[in-house]
């Protein structure tokens, strides 16, 4: 397994995913690629709308910096790549661009996800062309 992509956004689920990806990368000698995706606002047209001002790219840069701090503390080098778009699509696209062998994502437990089924982990698992590890965290 040469390359692992992990989606990260500082939620408990994505933190567990980052930890699991780090463990796998160490054990397998894999390259780790960490991404944090700035989502577009949902529009009524055919394309995504503008960036949500409550979730700007700067926030995602901070998330990647936090992931870097954690991984460097674990002695792991990684590539860090921000993206803008629909999170699941961006994660899958990055995995394809990097010829990843696996994607690691956390599973969401929030109210929005339960009501609308808007799960990034589910979408990634259905659209990826490589293995997907969905890391679960206990319900809070």
What does this molecule look like?
The protein is α/β, with parallel strands linked by helices and 140 residues long. 42% of the residues lie in helices and 21% in strands. It has five helices and five strands, in the order βαβαβαβααβ. β1, α1 and β2 form a beta-alpha-beta unit. α3 packs parallel to α5 (120-127). It starts with a strand and ends in a 5-residue tail after the last strand. Residues 111-117 have low confidence and may be disordered.
Annotate the secondary structure layout.
Blueprint: E1 3-7, H1 12-28, E2 31-38, H2 57-73, E3 78-84, H3 87-97, E4 102-106, H4 111-116, H5 120-127, E5 131-135
Parallel strand pairs: 1-2, 1-4, 2-3, 4-5
How many H/I helical runs? 5
Strand order of the largest sheet: 3-2-1-4-5
Envelope shape: globular
End-to-end separation: 33 Å
Q: How many runs of DSSP E, i.e. beta strands?
A: 5
Low-confidence stretches: 111-117
Largest sheet: 5 strands, parallel
Radius of gyration: 14 Å
What oligomeric state is this? Answer: single chain
Give the strand content. Answer: 15-25%
Mean pLDDT: 87
Structural class: alpha/beta
Could you spell the SSE succession in H and E letters?
EHEHEHEHHE
Helix content: 40-55%
List keywords for this structure.
alpha/beta; five-stranded parallel sheet; 5 helices; 5 strands; globular
């Amino acid at each position: 397994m040469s390359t692992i992509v992990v989606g990260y956004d500082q939620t408990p689920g994505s933190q567990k995913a980052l930890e699991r990806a780090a463990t796998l990368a160490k054990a397998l000698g894999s390259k780790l690629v960490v991404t944090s995706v700035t989502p577009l606002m949902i529009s009524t047209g055919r394309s995504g709308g503008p960036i949500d001002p409550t979730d700007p790219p700067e926030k995602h840069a901070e998330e990647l910096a936090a992931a870097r701090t954690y991984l460097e503390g674990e002695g792991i080098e990684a590539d860090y790549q921000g993206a803008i778009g629909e999170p699941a699509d961006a994660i899958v696209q990055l995995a394809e661009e990097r010829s990843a062998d696996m994607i690691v994502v956390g599973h969401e437990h929030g109210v929005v996800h339960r009501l609308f089924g808007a799960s990034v982990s589910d979408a990634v698992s259905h659209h990826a062309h490589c293995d997907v590890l969905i890391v679960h965290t206990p319900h809070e």
